[in-house]
Amino acid sequence: MTTAGTGTPIAPGRARPAARVPAGIPAPPPVPSSVPAGVPAPLHAGAASNGTGEIRFAALGDSLTAGLGDPVAGGWRGWAALLAPGLAAEPSAVSLLNCSRSGALTKDVVEEQLPRALDHRPHLASVVIGANDTLRGTFDIETVARRLDAVVGELRAHDAQVLTACLPDPGRMLGLPWPLARPLGRRMAALNQVVHALSERYGAVHLHAARHPWVADRAAWSADRLHPSELGHRLLAREFHDLLATRGLSDGEPPSTTPGGPGPGAAASVRWMATKGTRWVADRCTDLLPDLLRLAGRETRHRLAGTDGLLDLRSRDATARALARLEGTSLGQ
Predict the structure, then answer these.
(1) How far apart are CA 197 and CA 24, in angstroms?
(2) CA 280/CA 226 separation, integer angstroms
(3) What residues are paired with 301 via a beta bridge?
């Protein structure tokens, strides 16, 4: 496997595939599954057509895709690097360009990462982004949905097969008290619902990681409880590979799920929270904190009045409106 350089940004060019936007919010699938709509051609078919035999893979996203939690000499590895060699029978035929960076928002993917990815002319592209948007006071599900639609639609219009995933909400993973966790949980649920709908719309290979059994395994998470450990990254890579193999999209060996060393224990988590965790949360919440406190106050008032179900309904309605308004949009609108 080779790792590509950064490349020169280019402007997206082709029109999008015909779109079908759901009128409402589809229910999450009960078990992890790929989305059956729009099965694309095998990766090796695209590689053969360009005469090089090379399979190009572009990974777009935030710290999850950048590999945080899976340290190697000189930096981070992560699930995308673990997945890449198994995309082809000959690992050296795969060229990976990892465009992701820690702290990235959907805006960064549209403006910075997508042009780089398109310049790589990928046969396969992963888009796992949005968690950082939910941790901002400016979070707006319609804006996030429009950006995700632009990214996934443009990649598909350029003949890239797309990988997507939905993820568990950070409030639950951090064990926050319910007045704080519930608003964040709603935001993540809205984000995941958009990812479900867009995956169906564009025939993406979708991993329903939010409800996957291994999510509850403490060993699958690093000391910060937000990023996968080496084991977690290996499990993500293996699940993506299994989905691709099921659809005839990967020819290589599946990634190993055996870590190279022991995972983080309870003591590591305590040390992280004591030495870095508080600062990490404070840095991430500089923008969010005032809004989150307001949301927590509203949550408490509705809980005491027995009307907290209204907050769930409003969130679902906002997500449904966001999805309905995607019809006819284009990149940059």
Answers:
(1) 10
(2) 11
(3) none
Structure token digits, residue 178: 């319910």
d(CA 183, CA 303): 12
**pTM for the whole structure:** 0.80
Phi, psi of 184 (to 5 degrees): -65, -35
Sign of CA dihedral 248, 252, 256, 260: negative
Using left for φ > 0, alpha for ψ between -120 and 50, and beta otherwise, residue 54 falls in beta
d(Cα 166, Cα 211) in Å, to the nearest integer? Answer: 9
- Residue corresponding to tokens 């988590």: 269
Strands 94-98, 71-72: pairing kind: unpaired
Looking only at the bridges linking them, the beta strands covering 75-76 and 71-72 are antiparallel
Dump pLDDT digits (tens) for 294-314: 888 999 999 999 998 999 999
DSSP at 29: P
pLDDT in tens, 88-128: 999 999 999 999 999 999 999 999 999 999 999 999 999 99
Q: What is the per-residue DSSP string for 76-95?
A: E--HHHHHGGGGSSSGGGEE
